[in-house]
Amino acid sequence: MAQAKKGDTVRVHYTGTLEDGTIFDTSADREPLEFTIGGGQVIPGFDVALLDMTLGEIKVSVIPAEEAYGNHSADLVTEVDRERFPADMELEIGQQLQVGLADDQQAIVMVVDMSDTAVTLDANHPLAGQDLTFEIELVEIL
After folding, report:
1. Which domains does the chain have, with CATH numbers?
2. For 45-70, how does the pLDDT look when each residue is reduced to its tens digit (9 = 90+)?
3. Using CA atoms, how far apart are residues 113 and 128, in angstroms rounded to an integer?
4. CA-to-CA distance for 86 and 10, rounded, in angstroms?
5. Strand blocks (E) in 19-142
6. I need a labelling partner for 128 at 20 to 30 A (CA). Which of 17, 24, 103, 112 fits?
7. Could you tell me if 17 and 26 are in contact, meaning their C-beta atoms sit under 8 angstroms apart?
8. What is the DSSP string of 8-43?
9. pLDDT at residue 103 is higher than 90
């Protein structure tokens, strides 16, 4: 039976959960995810989990933070003066904002703390620092 290998384009169904069992993403109600193994389209640990899987196989793989969205980096958390935001802008903890960077790039940040004078922004991926568990079903090797 065919086994998935690096360079194969595959279609998979998956459910991703956190350590406490909370589902953070699933393909259950949509088309299977299609990508090329080793093509940089998914987190590295997801690629590795698929290697040598056979068609129809279902497996559970725990992907450590380092092979998922990386460890949480304190360097990506910064405090900004509240006056740098428009006075009428409603801000709340957990809100995501798109900000411009010095090199004309854009970044998504999350408001993680705020006071009357400052807003703390976190540019880490929301799943950074977390080990992720995926139940993966190999649906097709194209």
Report:
1. 9-70+127-141 (3.10.50.40), 74-122 (2.40.10.330)
2. 999 999 999 999 999 999 999 999 99
3. 18
4. 46
5. 23-26, 33-36, 58-63, 77-81, 96-100, 106-114, 118-122, 132-141
6. 103
7. no
8. -EEEEEEEEE-TTS-EEEE-TTSPPEEEETTSSSS-
9. no
